[in-house]
């Protein structure tokens, strides 16, 4: 993806050198966009092939929205992130289904984690501290909403994302 981002940013710069930002900034932004598109596309294609398209889409959307609000740790490389995210989004709703008290426990566990640790943004995010209370409240509200909806897929998405917010010591580096 990085080489594609380099080629695209160079082409944009050549087409309009006066009104564009630096190639490095465009490469960075394009890497994020291209990697996100790759992960979404791969997840939905695989989910569709496994007859699990809707659940994969719901999982991906809920996981992503909560991640925007709550932050969480990042893997070392974009490739690792792409692979792990795709596998989580496709396999988790396909393999696991919780109902009743199990779903309630998952929701409660996620809610407690958000209350204790959210937001936990990436050190490079540069989010102003004054936004943290709002991000915490948004994270808590999102997780709390699943007590009303009662969706196993949403509960699992929130659980997996909430685990990334915990500031584990000596965490596995991929």
UniProtKB/TrEMBL annotation:
Keywords per UniProt: Cell membrane, Hydrolase, Membrane, Protease, Quorum sensing, Transmembrane, Transmembrane helix
Stored InterPro entries: AgrB
Keyword Ubl conjugation: no
UniProt key word Cell membrane: yes
Pfam families linked to this entry: AgrB (PF04647)
Membrane-crossing segments per the record: 32-51, 57-75, 87-118, 138-166
Domain of life: Bacteria
Protein name listed in UniProt: Accessory regulator AgrB
Organism: Paenibacillus borealis
